[in-house]
Amino acid sequence: MSPIEIAIIVGMTGYAIYKQTVVSVVANQNRFKMAIIYGIVGLVAGGFALPHGSAGYGLLLAGLALSAVVGVARGYRTDIWMEHDGRIVRKGNALTILLFVGLVAAKFAMGV
User: Fold this and answer.
1) Could you give phi then psi for residue 85, rounded to 5 degrees?
2) Which one has a higher pLDDT value, 5 or 105?
3) Closest CA to 107 of 62, 50, 74, 42
4) What is the DSSP string of 69-95?
5) pTM of the entire structure?
6) Which H helix or E strand runs over 24?
């Protein structure tokens, strides 16, 4: 990875952590916004390379499975409540942030 790619990953990780620490309204139109942003940044910053060999595909599948497991755990542990005006809001907590940072670190280690 180039220093620019690492800086982009660190910046996006910081932004994602920030977004988890603020209260935000739960809405269908924002459900996949961060995933789409990450996909676009990933394509612009480094593109997408297909894995080589069975070990590469195994790591890709392991990364996808890890993302799914951590995503479900984060969704289960995110604080969600209803405001007095009827809006449903959410906010991450220390555990959800730790899970996110752990996922990023694990995927970085898998890639290196």
Assistant:
1) -85, 5
2) 105
3) 62
4) HHHHHHHHHSEEEE-TTS-EEEE--HH
5) 0.78
6) strand 24-25
